[in-house]
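Researcher: We are triaging several targets before committing to wet-lab work. For this one, the compound of interest is S-adenosylmethionine. I'm pasting the protein sequence and the ligand SMILES. What I need is the predicted three-dimensional arrangement of the protein with the ligand bound, expressed as structure tokens, so it can go straight into our comparison scripts without reformatting.
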Amino acid sequence: MPKANAVYTHGHHESVLRSHRRRTAADSAAHLLPALAPGLSVLDVGCGPGTITADLAALVAPGKVTAVDASEDVLAEARATAAERGPIDIRFVRGDALALDFPDDSFDVVHAHQLLQHLGDPVAALREMRRVCRPGGVVAARDADYAAMAWYPRTAGLDDWLDLCRRVARANGGEPDAGRRLRSWARAAGFTDVTASASAWCFADDADRAWWSGLWAERTVASSYAPLAVDGGHARPKDLERIAAAWREWGAREDGWFMVPHGEILCRV
Ligand SMILES: C[S@@+](CC[C@H](N)C(=O)[O-])C[C@H]1O[C@@H](n2cnc3c(N)ncnc32)[C@H](O)[C@@H]1O
């Protein structure tokens, strides 16, 4: 059942942005890259701090890129990221994926990465993305699938982390196991030409384990996720501390391995 007012579970604490800032078009939008060419116009919906957006802009230059996010704070960071990258043409605007403020048929490519899982009505968002994409263009989305995440060694603390993440996300109106649902959501939104694929991030070497475990240990107790988990009655502060400790223990394991699988769709309009 769609929820009109989903809450963005993760918020924009430094520990959350640290995870988003590392993303590139190569590691997060590879399914879209063959459809890009210089001169195409792109809309990036839910752009966050904008590192993927900036990569997309470089790939379609001199094509124009527009990026939308619901948060003005994160848009300020995205503008700064774009400015650091040099002369790339990106217009950043505050907006809602469920009511995009653009005329029909405005863009050649409409993209969203890790957005649909957070929305109360992802099918309505995909309908909006289709509306603003011109006939013959493409709509692309990629989302993680929490239930399919896998790691070694398995510990009770990380099992509890996953269980809590999925409960909090659902209570906030989102769908944490979005990856497997993207194709069905696209069909429900009216797309008939949908290419579905999957790809994964993997964190295993010392630097990646330190980065991944450190940011999850911190965001579990310090990001807006913590009060949502506690005030929603899903966990006590001491449960969050235990989960954060489990992340640090996993990060210290030299044999540690973690996979984040994603579903992807490329829909021809
Ligand atoms: C997980 S982040 C992904 C950011 C970026 N696409 C990336 O992968 O690095 C999701 C972003 O979607 C934004 N967002 C959440 N709900 C939104 C909505 N209804 N409309 C537009 N943006 C939204 C959040 O503010 C957040 O910056």
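Researcher: Any quick observations?
Model: The beta strands are 42-45, 65-69, 90-94, 107-113, 133-144, 150-152, 193-203, 257-268.
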